Amino acid sequence: MTLAGKNYSAFTKYFFTAYGDNYGKVIAVESLKDIPFDIKRVYYMYDTTAGVVRGKHAHRNLEQVLICVSGNCKISFEDGRDKKVFMLDKPNEWLYMPKHIWGEQFDFSEGTVLLVLASELYDDSDYIRDYDEFLELVKGKNEN
């Protein structure tokens, strides 16, 4: 995905600009300015039990930005060929998850809040929950 001449990748960690002073910090996120899509849905995960792995799916069309606003967790992204694991532990860090990326979230610390900004409204048919189906989908894409 390209926005304002910048290419966004699932295998890169990005940073929001934090503004602040002695009173604290604030981060503002604007659609199509700070992230590469129009935000249509916002949700967050919290009180995740130790040892739980979340996600374990890909999307056909949906794009996401993941932000750990409190605590920390690990995020793995896979495109069928490459896999990378990130630690999100600062509220100004974020990951871009384009469509056709298998994502998992795990190793949540106590008190973690993982915020997700999504490009589309919820649509169950957009989810690819079977790993083999995901591999078949991206196979042709990765052969090019």
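Second entry:
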Amino acid sequence: MPGKSMQEVFNIPAYPKPRPLRQTWLKDVGYDEAPQYIERMGLVELEDFLEVAAERLDYVKIVTSQILGSPQDWLKRKIATYQRFAVEPYLDHSFFMQAYQHGVVESAIEAGRALGFRVIEFMNTTDEVSPAQWKAWRKLARELSMRVIQEHHPLHHWNRSLAPRAASAGEILRGAAAALEDGAFMLMIDHEEFDLQGENTAREIGKVVDALGLENIVFEATSPKEGPMLWHDNLQLYFSLFGENANVANIMPSQALYVESMRAQS
């Protein structure tokens, strides 16, 4: 006689997709492990991993080194596999930065769409990129049926001559305003902004949350290459400040299922 499932026995809640909150965004480094990563995600591992974890995942960043260095047909199969499991891959800000540095932003967006990407992440920049140019790039993405993520980074990521400093809530909101007006569906806030904010985090990032709504923001955790447990500290901070339903990004495959446990403990 069939009995109850484990989910029913232990009253484990389900959070069906698409969901505005409680999103977990993965980081996929492919086979680009050394010297910074100890994880890999090829096609064989991916299929098995997603059978277990896809229900908990929403988006996945496929790192730029993998996109530029892997066979195109293999990448197309990887992207299609994620999409089959309702996990949407995206091109991250480093892809945009490399395209900008090579002067090939338009053709890079088009090439990304040809691979199967339906989401691209842009970032805040200093004034050498004009509002009109940004608008044209977002328009191109929309015309290619791509959705846009806008990431807020401390500006020294774009211009290394600038000293690291915390941004005010107003600066973060003004930097994202045009992208959001043009249809960007999510503002990502980089982990380093939290490091720079320090004791002002709750006040300044809280104002951004109040202005945009928690469902329109995703907080990015530190990669393990920068410290093996910093991602854990980041997530504890995000969940303690903004609750267990906060959207989080840059999660490695080995961390993916543990994120839900951290939410429950917050």
